[in-house]
Automatic annotation (TrEMBL):
This is tRNA(Ile)-lysidine synthase. It catalyses: cytidine(34) in tRNA(Ile2) + L-lysine + ATP = lysidine(34) in tRNA(Ile2) + AMP + diphosphate + H(+). ATP binds at residues 26-31. GO terms for molecular function: ATP binding; tRNA(Ile)-lysidine synthase activity. SMART domains: TilS_C. It comes from Variimorphobacter saccharofermentans. The gene is tilS. Its main location: cytoplasm. Ligates lysine onto the cytidine present at position 34 of the AUA codon-specific tRNA(Ile) that contains the anticodon CAU, in an ATP-dependent manner. Cytidine is converted to lysidine, thus changing the amino acid specificity of the tRNA from methionine to isoleucine. Keywords: ATP-binding, Cytoplasm, Ligase, Nucleotide-binding, tRNA processing.
Amino acid sequence: MIPKIINFINQYHMIEKGDRIVVGVSGGADSVCLLYVLKEISSLCGTKVIAVHVNHGLRGEEADRDEDFVSNLCEHLGIECHKFHYNIKSIAKQEGLSEEETGRKIRYQTFLEVCNQHKCNKIAIAHNKNDNAETVLFHLFRGTGIRGMTGIEPNRIFSKKHGTIRIIRPLLCIERMEIENYLKEKSFLYRTDSTNLSDEYSRNKIRNHILSYVTKEINPQAVHNIAEAASKLREAEEFIDSIIEAKYRELVSSVDQEIRLPVAGFETLANVIKKGIVRKIMESLSGSYKDLESTHVDAVLTLLDKQVGRQIHLPYHMIAERDYHDLVFYQSTGKNKEASCLRDINPVAIEIPGSCYIPELNKYLAAQVIIREKTEPIPKSSCMKWFDYDKIENAVVIRPRKEGDYIQIHSTGGRKKLKDYLIDRKVPQKIRDHLLFMADGSHIMWVLDDEGRISEKYKVDETTSRILLMKLLDAEENEDDR
């Protein structure tokens, strides 16, 4: 068995000379076997092994006896041992998690803390081939994609906060029966956790009933076959992931707290690649993969056939939205939420002549009336505009759009609703909601964006005698002028 484990360790480059390894030791058969294996390897590779035992406070005297057993075993082997006590029941209640999930979370946090304190770079966990098969079945029954069917990873990065710390699983190549036979052959003692024999947890039901039945009644190689299938699926997933990564880099861009995915280059891809890209976007935006399910990915993909402006609300306050040319992803608690409040600001009246500060644009708007000189050319700038002053009917204001707004688009008098004008220009709804406009009543005189469109009604022509000159100035530029 030991040569098989060593070959597996070498195959996945788990242990190298000089490694400092934290190993989780519960006292059960798997972790005791792992401790003996690492002890043997450490003498060959010059590695340092530190044992960590976590008492969850759930099994009273039984847990205390497990702790004493681990202490004595480590002392016998000459291995440094650190013991920790937690009230998992209380922590689970406070955090709204199951005791099983809380225990796992606390264990890994503890392993990481010991790694940081003792400058270790590896965490060794005693998962075996049976655990891998149970994990595959658990994910399958709960509902999963390819990733969930790949089982437990032999070697992965766990943290990079204080240098790279990896989780390694040297026993993933052997079955539980092989471990128990090895310990029996060597007369090595171990503890049995009574909760593993109960059906309180879903994994125990899979272990004690489903897998045991399958191996006895259908195929004694079932555990091996499930683990092998998971390994092959992992290889396929790695290939698919390489394509997803390449297409992600090619297509996806980040601008102003938004992630944009162009529909034209995306919709022709194979479904598995599209789903992978969407999941990668959601994980990047949320910073997590927990609670991101295939139903969320499928919902986002339905936007490809939806009209502009349709949205899907996702976990972690994320929103996916169909734009004219892109799928846009953003978090509603960020910049976009603040921008959407722009429609609630009060109109700002423009003093003519005079100037006013527009905080939403961080600009000053300067206004003056001049007499038209027939030979003077009309400016062509998005920041400075001329208007026929005598055609203005109401007080001029700066404000967001509102119901009933329109703009004149033809010199002969043809009007268009402002909403329709912006839609024709393919301006996304969330952008429309935080544009500002200069208005004469419901008539939009000037759209204050990069295009800077003004209404045909107010354009200077041969009959104009007085010109309203309006100029947008950066706040810094205006301060310098003063």
